[in-house]
Write a structure and sequence with these properties.
This protein is α+β, with helices and mostly antiparallel strands. The strands form 8 sheets. Strands 5, 20, 21, 22, 23 and 24 form a 6-stranded mixed sheet that branches. Strands 6-7-8-10-9 form a 5-stranded antiparallel sheet, with helices on one face. Strands 13, 14, 15, 18 and 19 form a 5-stranded antiparallel sheet that branches. A hairpin with a 4-residue loop joins strand 28 and strand 29 (about 750-755).
């Protein structure tokens, strides 16, 4: 039997050594990865914060568990386990040494598990880096860095304390139930004095935890508000907030009283104190805030809340950079309507993606659709991946002339597309798994597998023996890990929120662009807005991450004027950041606008305006006019950037409370992103009317190809010198096969026009021929399509549509042939 125990002990020691070796190898490999990307300083910061946060939580949790289990151990005089010797079963007493060792090991395991209840290490890093915003909140006198940096960390510590207390209490109750100290007998629960004292200590800790929650509630009132959506009002300031602090103090005192009462066997006093705390909590948290406005003489609650509303407006402007929205006339986007023809895409990104994906039986678009300006108009770009029969991948770049329907190149259902082969990228959106390759150029951002020690440690860290003893590609083999764009950027910019992954192609090189945002869910006194799929109280564009698809190198370029959080992070890790001057100029010009940041900035501007522009409550026009088949892609235009060049542009209409269009917001990308509000000369039509009028041209269902349906794209809001124009494409959408462009509708203040292209619609609005010169085949086809629309309009009694089709037929007959 002793030999069996020795073998078991040896196996346990060997397993522990292997586990420790795996952990050390993983740490070493992780450092090598960061060093290969020039972020060794960030790794040391990460390691220090992980040790402080998770290591400290594990040790403290283990100590708490050990103290409680040791207290339970004192209730057990002896522990006898059955043992069989031959056919005879006898009891064997477990020695106190073995019990102490078992308690210690169990405590370490539970403490390590409890460490997972903590937040990510970046929460602690943020709290340590963001030392001061230089601004104080007007109610509690805290620097705003307390809310952005420290408060998330304190909430994480509170959650860890909650989980720890619940787990420890469960363990204690379960273990005591196995002893005579806690038993059910004669219909009564019998508790020994030792167990009662232990439960008293846990009860006191629970009250302290409750007091801590009241302290947090005081600060979270400024974040979430209690007087309306995100509004910290008079009741919160004068009643609910002070009540939370009173409850925190009283609950702390109650914890001391309960501990004293339990240790002195005064159970009735302990019960009375706990009951009093519960009653006070009900009165101060629920009853008093509800009754306060009626109990206090003076102005009404709405009047009292006016100053708080003004404070919310100020903090909302700061939280979403609403003051950064420029105001201008329609010339800020396009000089004239004609100049927008080659800058407004006929094809939505979703339609482009659906068309390009028909290139192969299993081709998929990786990331979003990107845009750049070409010699003949706006080009849409998408990276295509297609699995082949031999399990390899075929990569190509699909380019589509998104502002035209015919070209000298190949045409796929009206969309001119060009596909060029791409070298297989090392890093792309959604990539998984590791890759070993020979770095012949010495530019791949990955640790080398040179030397026996390096190969062994990397092999141990990823559990691949071949890396240690197998034949590797030569020369200079490297192990490429964390190949997903989002994963790679998150490791280098952990405190920033990521936007959409969009490709930019320069020749045969693809760069993945990811907008980065400084964001917080605990910034005080501002509206709550949704961006990147979550709700925030602070959201600003911080910069752009660009990932080289072939080398995996990451360049992070901050905005020209970073906000406080970004400034602190740059000062702490300057080697992580670069400038646009160090990157290709064509790359900077093609960077898309930060859509999430622009949307929150525009939404904040619509609600609270700026110090100089105070609009009534407006809001962004809803985007549900597009069919669900197009996905969540937004339409992108091409417009002038603030440095005098051109850059991708995202626009959206702004409407007032009556749903009338009052202007447009244009957000440009490039190296100098900006957001501009272009006001209408006077309130225009209701947004619902705009959408209905754009759909007013005759229903072309009768002229659509077989097994297809008419799908409306997103409305493009185009600021021009002549006013705001609305452009919407319509597609013949097939369940099988690529979609085709059916028509384009354009609505201006003067007219509604439509045609086969945007240029067609512009010519029709100018009073010229809506169609180019047509050959006999095209002429007959267009006449047949118009005739089908006229019959469809007659069938449903839509005389406006019939008249529009009739006029189009007249223009077609008058056009030269």
């Amino acid at each position: 039997m002793r030999l069996g125990r020795q073998l078991a002990l040896a196996a346990a020691v060997l397993a522990a050594l292997l586990l420790a070796g795996r952990l050390l190898a993983a740490v070493w490999a992780d450092h090598a990865w960061y060093a290969a990307l020039g972020a060794g300083e960030l790794w040391w910061a990460k390691a220090g914060n992980v040790v402080l946060l998770h290591g400290g939580s594990a040790l403290l949790g283990a100590a708490i568990v050990f103290a409680n289990l040791y207290a339970v151990r004192q209730s057990v005089a002896t522990l006898v386990l059955p043992r069989r010797v031959g056919n005879l079963e006898i009891g064997e007493e477990v020695s106190s040494t073995y019990m102490a060792v078992a308690i210690g090991l169990l405590s370490l395991l539970v403490g390590a598990a409890l460490a997972f209840a903590q937040a990510d290490w970046s929460t602690l890093a943020l709290a340590r880096v963001v030392d001061s915003f230089g601004e104080i909140d007007p109610y509690l006198g805290r620097d705003l860095s307390f809310y952005v940096g420290w408060l998330p960390l304190e909430r994480s510590l509170f959650v860890w304390a909650q989980v720890t207390l619940i787990v420890v209490t469960g363990l204690v109750v379960a273990l005591y139930a196995l002893t005579p100290s806690l038993r059910w007998e004669g219909g009564r629960l019998l508790v020994s004095p030792r167990v009662r004292r232990h439960f008293t200590v846990l009860g006191a800790l629970l009250l302290l935890l409750l007091a801590w929650s009241y302290r947090l509630d005081r600060y979270l009132l400024l974040v979430d508000g209690g007087s309306g959506p995100g509004l910290y009002g008079w009741v919160d300031d004068q009643v609910a907030g002070p009540s939370a602090m009173v409850l925190a103090v009283l609950t702390t005192a109650a914890a001391v009283l309960v501990l004293w009462a339990g240790l002195t066997a005064q159970v009735r006093m302990a019960f009375t104190v706990v009951s009093a705390v519960l009653v006070l909590a009900l009165l101060l948290q629920e009853a008093l805030p509800a009754a306060a406005p009626r109990l206090v003489d003076g102005p009404s609650l709405d009047v009292r809340n006016r100053s708080y509303l003004g404070t919310r407006e100020i903090y909302t402007r700061r939280a979403y950079a609403a003051e950064g929205v420029r105001t201008g006339d329609s010339a800020a986007a396009f000089v004239a309507l004609d100049s927008a023809i080659d800058a407004v895409p006929l094809w939505d990104p979703g339609a482009v993606a659906a068309t390009l994906q028909r290139a192969g039986p299993a081709a998929t678009v990786v990331g979003n659709v990107g845009w750049r300006m070409g010699p003949e108009g706006l080009l849409a770009m998408a990276v295509l991946r297609e699995p082949l029969a031999d399990s390899s991948l075929r990569w190509s770049l699909g380019t589509a002339a998104a502002t035209r329907t015919e070209d000298s190149g190949p045409v796929r259902d009206g969309l001119p597309v060009t596909e060029t082969p791409l070298p297989a990228p090392l890093v792309y959106d959604g990539a998984v798994g590791d890759l070993v390759l020979a770095d012949t150029t010495g530019i791949v951002a990955a640790p080398p597998l040179t030397g026996a020690a390096s190969r062994l440690l990397h092999a141990w860290s990823v559990q691949r023996l071949r890396l240690a003893v197998g034949q590797l590609p030569a020369p200079t083999p490297r192990l490429v890990r964390h190949r997903g764009v989002r994963e790679r950027v998150a490791r280098l910019a952990p405190v920033f929120v990521q936007g959409a992954v969009t490709p930019i192609a320069l020749d045969d090189t693809v760069y993945w662009t990811v907008p980065l945002y400084a964001a917080s869910r605990t910034y005080p006194l501002s509206f709550h807005l949704t961006a990147a799929g979550r709700e925030w109280t602070y959201f600003k564009h911080a910069g752009t991450a660009l990932v080289h698809s072939r080398t995996g190198r990451v360049a992070i370029v901050p905005v020209a004027r970073p906000e406080a959080l970004t400034r602190r992070w740059i000062a702490r890790f300057p080697s992580l950041f670069t400038t646009w001057e160090q990157l290709p100029a064509d790359l900077a010009a093609a960077v898309p606008p930060p859509l999430d940041g622009a949307a929150t900035q525009a939404s904040a501007f619509a609600r609270v305006g700026t110090a100089d522009v105070r609009p009534p409550p407006w809001h962004l026009a809803p985007g549900y006019e597009a069919d669900s088949a197009l996905g969540d892609f937004g339409a992108t235009l091409m417009g002038p950037s603030s440095n005098g060049g051109t850059a991708p542009m995202w626009t959206v209409a702004m409407v007032d409370e009556a749903d009338r269009v009052v202007g447009a917001v244009a957000a440009t990308g490039g190296a100098h992103p900006s957001t501009t509000f272009v006001a209408s000369a006077s309130p225009g039509e209701r947004w619902l009317t705009v959408r209905e009028r754009l759909r007013r041209p005759p229903d072309q269902a009768a002229a659509l190809p077989t097994e297809s349906r008419l799908v409306g794209g997103r409305v493009r809001t185009v600021p021009t010198r002549q006013g705001i124009a609305f452009v919407q494409p319509f597609y013949a959408w097939r369940s099988q096969g690529a979609p085709g462009l059916s028509r384009v509708a354009m609505l201006t203040a003067d007219s509604l026009s439509y045609g086969a292209t945007f240029a067609d619609a512009v010519r029709q609005a100018r009073g010229g021929p809506a169609l180019p010169e047509l050959g006999p085949t095209d002429f007959r086809g267009r006449v047949a399509a118009i005739y089908a629309r006229m019959r469809g309009a007659l069938r449903i009694g839509d005389w406006s549509a019939f008249g529009a089709a009739f006029d189009e037929l007249g223009r077609l007959l008058a056009a030269p042939r």
